Amino acid sequence: MGIMLQRSLRDPVARIIQPFVRFLVKIGITANIISTLGGLGSTIAALYFFSKGEFFVGVLVVAFFVLFDLFDGAVARASQSGESKWGALLDSTLDRISDAAIFIGGLLFFLKTSDSLTVIFLIAATAAFLVSYVKARAESLSIKCDGGIAERSERLIIVLVAYGLHGLGLNYAMAIGMWLVTILSIVTVLQRMMIVYKAVK
């Protein structure tokens, strides 16, 4: 489901952002600059707004910086230097830092207000990061391990929607969103482990 969603959106989005990509390349903005701005921006915004309980505003600001992810790869491909291994590592690392900040920001707020949600946050964050770990470990064994029901983009959408709805007063949305991320992440981990299992057999 995750990879199908990303593929179905890839071409239309690429066409929409192409003029902006050409402009960024023309003025000398590199993919690494975009990755760094997006990663640091979303991290700082998440820690600042979510820890204060300003979830709706925080979602808007974080979503703005997350959209930078649409441009870094496209700019790298459109530039003369092309995509690089360092750029891929930088982007992936900043994505993980941003993801952690989103969970930590919410966790810091609920540590002061809700013991039950604190536990759910810890479970959801652990499950979500296991998805990335399995992929990284598989690739260290030279096994391609993409796909699964909930890749990063799907998990991020669920979390941000839950945060946003909570910010609008739908308090139950947070628990639902966190449990949904947990369940889908566990399913994705199992799917990716099966990919590796079949590859080594």
UniProtKB/TrEMBL annotation:
Gene Ontology MF annotations: phosphotransferase activity, for other substituted phosphate groups
Key words of the record: Membrane, Transmembrane, Transmembrane helix
TM helices/strands, residue ranges: 20-49, 55-76, 88-111, 117-134, 179-200
One annotated GO biological process: phospholipid biosynthetic process
Keyword Transmembrane: yes
One GO CC annotation: membrane
NCBIfam families attached to this UniProt entry: PIPSynth (NF045883)
The protein's name: Unannotated protein
Species this protein is from: freshwater metagenome
